[in-house]
Please model this.
Amino acid sequence: MERVLKAIYEQVRNGKDYRSYVDLKDFCREVMKTDIPLAIKYLSLLSDRIEQVIPTLPLEEMSSFFELHHDVVLLGAPHSFHLYLLAVEWRRDPSRKFYQPRRRVLRVLVDDLQDLADHKLDFLGISLPPRVGKSTLCIFFMTWMMGRNPDVANVMSGHSDKLTDGFYRELLSIIKDTTQYDWPLIFPNVPIADTSAKNETIDLNHTKRFPTMTCRSIGGTLTGAVEIGSGGVLYCDDLVEDLEESLNPDRLEAKYNAYLNQLKDRKKLGALELMVGTRWNVFDPLGRIQDQYDGNERYRFRVIPALNEDDESNFNYEYGVGFDTAYYRDMRESIDDATWNAKYQGAPYIREGLLFPEDELLTYNGVLPDGDPEKVVVCDVAWGGGDSLSMPIVYKFGEDVYIHDVVFNKGDKSVTYPVVIGRIKLHLPHKARFEANNGGHEYADNVDKELRKDGIHLHVFSKKAPSTQSKLARIIQFAPDIKRFYFLGTKYRSKEYREFMREVTTFVQTGKNPHDDAADSLAMVADELYHGTASVSVVKRPF
Model:
């Protein structure tokens, strides 16, 4: 069958013959009787192709293709979340649609949610900035799951009754408001049996002990009142209310225990789990689950930050419904780094156990004191595995130490060599120390050779990290010295410097650190400045 589908699709892909488009739709309908995933694959391809071809057609042909597209998305909607989103909002004005303006960005989440519905995942965690549509997308997902499995019980929970009341109203609107949505057209044989605003419940098909959907706050009556059936979904959205709650260890622990004992233990075998929220703290429920199931392929954690690697907005949606780059950059300058990273970048932090809290570090405005500084470079070389090459560039005026620049790069040596060499040429330090472990000695020799080719002679050397001391112990040992360093203030940091500082300010002395390269390189700086073996005299350069 796939051979036939492929042959018809080739005609569709390479032409505008209306009949071949209809043939593909009709054949997909037949294939659905025996192989739904295969049919959905080609219905999705057909939908995309129709959207591409419609703007190129004469006006007299557009109408028939438009109606055909409607037939295609309706046919696939019960089985494809993407096609469902197109179908359920079909009649809405484009500027008022939820999915269409946000589709380019949210499509990856749509595919994640499809994998959850198809039982390719047991758990999906989602972290996005505020007000970009993550909760609304998941509410659409729940209405889709309710229509597909109306006799299966689902639960939606959040931090407050007000929040879950909002869930209930949005769910009911999508299912009942036929002026805005086409849910009854997609699921024509699924009647609404009962609804209760008081209990925040919706029952489809017929009334049941455990309704098709129950919305209930984590502080409400849950035990004995809810159940998540096999194939149903436990949807948790913002279990942690705000920053204040995330900074209270007792409240955070109580919230996690409530999740375990009132929500998770109501899941029957085969029930699915969806958790959405702002990642305030590494020890919030989502963080603890991620730590517990790290490496488990059936647990997926999706993070889309406000600003991408190029410092551009990920959420500049159509029709002006998103947030542009200028908005996010201004927000970044308006709040502290820790809040920015947690709330907008999906990089949570904790206060308890932080070794270098942002507000305890010394900062300056990028202007160095007068005089001739001692300039030192230290480099912690990385060789892949997600680690970063970290190279602080130090200007020392007497007892005052300024981290004036950094190289912080996850690339391999072909990427980092020219960056490291270029930055050394820029600052012309008096000495450069490389950690000798894991090929650092060879790296230092190659850097020295390249510098000498350009007539730059400085003291380049490598030094092994002590084998009897762990990285964590070394970092803790030198923490008092590091806290005397001056770092660039938030508004004066490059993207590279900002990433370096994010890793420093989220480093914990208890618990698990995903990366320690930035903190370890600062420990190397302290070791070299205060315990180094090579003496340095500051002299006027002859070149």
Remarks:
- The longest helix spans residues 99-117.
